[in-house]
Amino acid sequence: MARLTNLNLSDQVTNELGKAIIDGSYNNETGFPSEAQLCEEYGISRTSVREAVKMLAAKGLISSKPRQGIRIELPEKWNFYDTNVLTWMLASSPSLTVLREFLQMRFAIEPQAAALAAKYGTKEDIAEIGKALEGMRAAAQTPDGDLHKADLEFHTAILQASGNRFFSQLKDFIRTALNVSIQHTTPAKGSNEAIVEEHHKVYIAISEGNVERAKNLMVYLIDEAMTVIEDEIKAQES
Amino acid sequence: MARLTNLNLSDQVTNELGKAIIDGSYNNETGFPSEAQLCEEYGISRTSVREAVKMLAAKGLISSKPRQGIRIELPEKWNFYDTNVLTWMLASSPSLTVLREFLQMRFAIEPQAAALAAKYGTKEDIAEIGKALEGMRAAAQTPDGDLHKADLEFHTAILQASGNRFFSQLKDFIRTALNVSIQHTTPAKGSNEAIVEEHHKVYIAISEGNVERAKNLMVYLIDEAMTVIEDEIKAQES
DNA sequence: TATGAAATATTATAATACAATTGAAGGGAA
DNA sequence: TTCCCTTCAATTGTATTATAATATTTCATA
């Protein structure tokens, strides 16, 4: 077990088990270990094991009943919008398929968020988007500026500006999606200015309250990434 | 404490505390009770209290550290895509605002899901949509048929057919959204046939693989509900 | 005042005991 | 045999107690 001493024992075990469940190391055919077995396996008390089990149950990964033991829930019950679950899933299968699923979600969420930001965004929220944009511009002009990080800020600022809890809750989700995205898409270097310019257009549309335009421009932004992925998937299949 | 004897003690306490946290009965100013205090308050052992606390922590509602005690996390950390959290939130504030937020999410998710279903849906998935549609038709023609339930099935079948885990994971979310929606929107009775017909069009578009049309028709479906809500909100404000 | 050490309150972990639940095995009767 | 009932056993559920770890507060000292 990876000893992250800044984490509780139960948190550590939660992590280990979560990863193992999601990557398929455990399954209900071979049988999931009982509490007692987990105690032995990790050399810890039942108290901690139970706390870990409860946390995993809270995330939808497992359930447990007397005499029946601990069972892995069907994957459709897993809460993929939980940051940990998401991380565990990506650790186990960072495939192009997952990346495409991410992009499809971004395609649904972000244009709508941009539209809402244009419609309802407060001055403060929109100022944050502007600040993120400045960060992108600065990073694009500096030799080793972290454009990617600034990009993340821009997109999350828009989610925040939507004024809708369900959208802004997806900040971590989108961050993760963008991070994975970056690892796959070969960065078309040299086009930094173009990237910033496209984001700038989105910002303008939002700050002007141009709902439809904000949405369309965001669609355009994501569509580019989507195209790259679809091509890669096609290349792999053939 | 509501004694739901089919639930664990820790589950019961999780429920009680979850609700109380979300409706604001507890807050960090007045101070959140310590484990010992919770034991007294609910008359249970520390074991159960701790398990409940861990579950709430897993859902992002609280965190706890030695000497510092249990603290409520910022609402932006709360995992609203967790079924329990969602239920607790609705129990505390079933306002029009929440309903609008729900609809905005549906507006983002469902048209895209319909598009994906049209593009990638398997025969089996699409057959399920068709079956749900038949259910709607039957319910619409029967005097006291449950059209609403059949409607739910239709929409969740589309999410399933998207072939994207992140979309199909939102089935419970959308179900809840639809349920709340029904409670608010005065059912424009007499138009049952029209409703079924509109859903039928969506089904046709999906089964024919007509991506754009599927998306647009779904937008239309949700937009109607959205309009009703927006009007209600305006009426309330004035 | 600033620094550091000690006291303290709270969570973190462990060990143990017993209760509750439920699936399976076994035994008796139709 | 087949069905139903009882008994048994394995596993989780709950409680109690004790100790460790941690971080805040207090207080003494330079």
From TrEMBL, chains A, B:
GO terms for molecular function: DNA binding; DNA-binding transcription factor activity. This is Transcriptional regulator, GntR family. SUPFAM superfamilies: GntR ligand-binding domain-like, Winged helix' DNA-binding domain. CDD domains: WHTH_GntR (cd07377). PROSITE patterns: HTH_GNTR. It holds the Pfam family GntR. Residues 7-75 form the HTH gntR-type domain. The keyword Transport does not apply. The keyword rRNA-binding does not apply. The lineage of its organism: Bacteria, Pseudomonadati, Pseudomonadota, Gammaproteobacteria, Alteromonadales. Keywords: DNA-binding, Transcription, Transcription regulation. InterPro entries: GntR_C, TF_FadR/GntR_C, Tscrpt_reg_HTH_GntR, WH-like_DNA-bd_sf, WH_DNA-bd_sf. It comes from Aliiglaciecola lipolytica E3.
